[in-house]
Design a protein that fits this description.
Chain lengths: 295, 319
């Protein structure tokens, strides 16, 4: 007969504790999202009566329809898409441009520039001076204010730099003898070799761009340029009822579904992250290790 | 760093500067946009710190930053003597302190537990589930906290009511702010922060496990006498790095969660700087810059010391 569990009773009890601990950990992480989703697709009455605790009650997509019909949401989504794509591409390109020269051991300014880079990680002008510089550059209410001030992260440059440094020196020497210039070597030889690192950096940059709300709070007041996170802040935290006003609901129905509308917004905002993160899990582990090596 | 010193063979030929520039011209081209970025958005704002020592007039633009009347340490004195000084420093420190106490051990426990799972797909699934909160934006997390804890229709108060407890207006009670901040922060980051410990545990040689099993050790003993000692260097290193951020609270989350009713426990230096410098009309740029500079200097000192210690520890920890 096959035994259900191999090992001593003591080991079994120990395993049981571990399983309970892990089950709680997973539950704590997943439950809030499940609850939000359930509220979002339940009937307003059930939500109001407090019946929705775990799973949806009386499946109903009215709140979902109301939110999805709201134009400002899609405009904000479009803006975020723009900021995320353009911002991330710029981030990665300029990070490579910074990291490659700093990784070349023969570069005569290497030490000095590395120091200038590292120094920015320890000390900054602070919120107000940066704010004054950005606004005086005419970037207030400009889409570039969302892209430029966060163009290069010194920490990510260091990760990228150590990736370039790990490439065999002979490869560079051979290419140089063949007459290739540094620009050619970087784009055709070095960058393809550090693709895994760049994947991690792309992920980190993209998530930061997608989630960025602080730049918008400082520099963007024009609603036609606001990113999704700024829109969400109005709905979720400043209790704006703008979505409700677009529909012809009675006052009673309005108060009923305010919380539902908010939860629908959370669902809409979180879905892209939920789809991407599991796909890039293996890169995540690499990414933290990169940071650790540097740390 | 020591490694680089042995590899400086390239400097052997001392070329004149002109030739160096010519030889490395492509590298220099690449650095042009990079240097411009750091000059404009990092180093130029640093010169703006002179505002902390003068009286900046609104509307005097960039030039006003440099040629406003000098007032010496007036703004610093004003800040140190203000009733908010103690409160801000205390709140900034305590939020980080409790985040460390609560948030630091959980990823270690979780990493030890999750590596006990022998079926890989299960292990991966558990890990992904716990990473997710880390990637959710601060706005959404704060929105969830706010709505879950709301006295009208929030799930937490609904459950409390079912247990016969009166609704609690969590977000408006100063005694709740730190708990909310610390618990939600630990919730968001424990899965992600466990990655590095999981990697350290996976790096332990299977031979060592086998040797302990042959010696008759049970699972608990293996964890106590093999797993935990093996990841001790990682734990110490991360602890020191966390200590380095002791006075830099994430501005966004506090800003999104707090309101005037809970300033007593919630207001931190960064949010105060924001309110003084940008959130009020007319803004008090010079004073806010001075307060921000105070915070930067403290942070710099702490990070510097922490880095020194971690370099020392990690060098010895390897051996």
């Amino acid at each position: 007969m096959k035994k259900l569990y191999k090992g001593t009773i003591g080991d079994f009890l120990f395993d049981l504790q571990i399983w309970i601990f892990l089950a709680i950990a997973v539950l704590v992480c997943v439950y809030p999202f499940l609850y939000v989703l359930s509220v979002a697709i339940s009937s307003g009455d059930a939500v109001n009566r407090g019946e929705v605790i775990l799973l949806p009650v009386d499946l109903n997509f009215d709140a979902m329809k109301t939110v999805l019909a709201y134009k400002q949401l899609w405009r904000a989504y479009g803006n975020t898409l723009f900021y995320t794509i353009v911002g991330t591409v710029c981030n990665v390109v300029f990070t490579c441009l910074a990291a490659y020269p700093l990784s070349r051991k023969r570069f005569f300014l290497r030490k000095q520039l590395n120091f200038l880079l590292a120094f920015t990680m320890y000390f900054s002008g602070g919120l107000i001076p940066i704010y004054i510089v950005v606004t005086n550059l005419g970037l207030y209410n400009s889409r570039w204010a969302m892209i430029l001030p966060a163009l290069i992260s010194a920490y990510n440059v260091m990760i990228c730099r150590s990736a370039f440094e790990s490439i065999s020196e002979e490869l560079f020497e051979e290419a140089a003898i063949e007459g290739a210039n540094d620009f050619f070597i970087m784009t055709r030889i070095a960058v393809p070799l550090i693709k895994p690192t760049l994947a991690v950096l792309t992920l980190y940059y993209a998530v930061a761009r997608y989630n960025d709300f602080f730049s918008a709070m400082l520099y963007i007041t024009d609603q036609s340029k606001e990113p999704l996170q700024a829109f969400l802040r109005r709905i979720l935290l400043q209790a704006s009822t703008e979505i409700m006003q677009t529909t012809s609901l009675s006052m009673g129905a309005l108060s009923q579904s305010t919380i539902q509308v908010r939860y629908v917004c959370i669902v809409v905002a979180v879905i892209p992250i939920m789809l991407v993160v599991p796909l890039v899990q293996k890169y995540l582990v690499q990414g933290t290790m990169l940071g650790a090596v540097k740390g | 760093m020591a490694k680089n010193k042995n590899k400086t063979a390239y400097v052997e030929k001392k070329l004149p500067l002109k030739k160096l520039i010519y030889r490395d011209r492509y590298l220099l081209y690449m650095m042009i946009p990079v240097v411009i970025f750091f000059a404009v958005f990092c180093y130029f704002p640093m010169t703006g710190l002179v505002m902390a020592f003068n009286r900046y007039r609104i509307g005097s633009g960039l030039a006003g930053v440099y040629n406003s009347p000098f007032v010496g340490l007036q703004w610093f004195r004003q800040f140190f003597q203000s009733v908010y000084f103690y409160r801000l420093v205390r709140n900034t420190f305590l939020l980080q302190f409790w985040s460390l106490i609560v948030g630091f051990p959980i990823p270690i426990l979780f990493a030890v537990a999750v590596t006990q799972i022998r079926r890989k797909p299960v292990q991966k699934t558990v890990q992904v589930a716990t990473y997710l909160p880390y990637f959710i934006s601060t706005v959404v997390v704060c929105g969830m906290i706010n709505n879950f804890l709301s006295p009208s229709g929030g799930i937490i108060n609904q459950l409390l009511n079912r247990l016969g407890v009166q609704s609690i207006n969590f977000m408006n009670l100063p005694e709740w702010f730190r708990r909310i901040y610390v618990i939600s922060g630990s919730w968001q980051s424990f899965g992600f922060n466990s990655i590095i410990f999981v990697a350290a545990i996976m790096g332990i040689s299977p031979d060592l496990y086998e040797a302990m099993r042959v010696d008759g050790a049970n699972r608990r003993q293996i964890i106590w006498h093999l797993v935990l000692p093996s990841i001790k260097p990682t734990i110490i290193l991360l602890l020191i790095m966390t200590l380095g951020s002791m006075m830099s609270v994430g501005f966004e989350k506090v800003y999104l969660l707090y309101n005037t009713a809970v300033y007593e426990t919630a207001d931190v230096i960064q949010t105060y700087v924001y309110r003084q410098g940008i959130g009020t009309s007319p803004p008090n740029y010079s004073f806010a810059t001075a307060v921000g500079l105070f915070n930067s200097v403290i942070n710099f000192a702490i990070v510097f010391v922490a880095n020194r210690i971690s370099r020392h520890v990690s060098d010895t920890a390897i051996w």
